[in-house]
TrEMBL record:
<feature type="transmembrane region" description="Helical">
    <location>
        <begin position="64"/>
        <end position="82"/>
    </location>
</feature>
<dbReference type="InterPro" id="IPR016181">
    <property type="entry name" value="Acyl_CoA_acyltransferase"/>
</dbReference>
<keyword id="KW-0472">Membrane</keyword>
<dbReference type="InterPro" id="IPR050769">
    <property type="entry name" value="NAT_camello-type"/>
</dbReference>
<dbReference type="Pfam" id="PF00583">
    <property type="entry name" value="Acetyltransf_1"/>
</dbReference>
<dbReference type="GO" id="GO:0008080">
    <property type="term" value="F:N-acetyltransferase activity"/>
</dbReference>
<protein>
    <submittedName>
        <fullName>Probable N-acetyltransferase CML3</fullName>
    </submittedName>
</protein>
<dbReference type="InterPro" id="IPR000182">
    <property type="entry name" value="GNAT_dom"/>
</dbReference>
<feature type="domain" description="N-acetyltransferase">
    <location>
        <begin position="75"/>
        <end position="218"/>
    </location>
</feature>
<keyword id="KW-0808">Transferase</keyword>
<keyword id="KW-0812">Transmembrane</keyword>
<keyword id="KW-1133">Transmembrane helix</keyword>
Amino acid sequence: MTPIFKFSIREYRASDQHVVMSLFRDGILEHVYPAFFNAISNPDHVGIALSISMAGYVLGGSSYFQALLFGSAWAGLIYYFCHDIYEGYMMRRLSTDMANIQTNYLEKPDNGFWVAEADVNGQSKVVGMVASAQDAEDRSYGEMSHMVVAFPWRRRNLGSQLMQKALDYCKEHGYTRLVLDISSPQTAAISLYQKFGFVQTGSHSNTHANRWFSKLARINVIRMENKYLTWKYFLTRK
């Protein structure tokens, strides 16, 4: 029998810092492997891998080992590109808004940062998080970020609860819309956002990594926006 856990969503506390940072790092780097498999299975990359392997076979004097070595080197390069993109994003956020959650979120009246707690054998454990911040230039809308649910706690509707918390917060603060950026390999998260009324409004390959890294890793940044973020929409959901 699957155990039943109780979840609660509350505002971030200073004592959550260590677990939240760990959750954030794991939540970002877990996308490296899906991005790698998505990229390496692309027909163009398959063709390149076969060509490089064939070159290794010929240069190695009909050596299957050399063919495998050359092909593996190409795959390793693609993996490095994927890892560099996600690690670079993680390090940028850890040195900016995540460096001081108290100052950048809680002390700003229009920003919010929440964690999800699970009651495990009478002990509270942080297993998810989400943040929302007012746009610095256009104060009519907010940007959602840092939506992470620890892997063992997924498929328990926790992501939906965190999403609803961010949407309700934006409603209370009078935002006309809520936007977010997400990488193209995060297909499960994209599906969740679509269920909550988010639609894709743009896409670009500027991952702040070397442009060839992004091109060869085939990772795009997708901008999504909640087109139903209005008072009428929220009133009908209650």
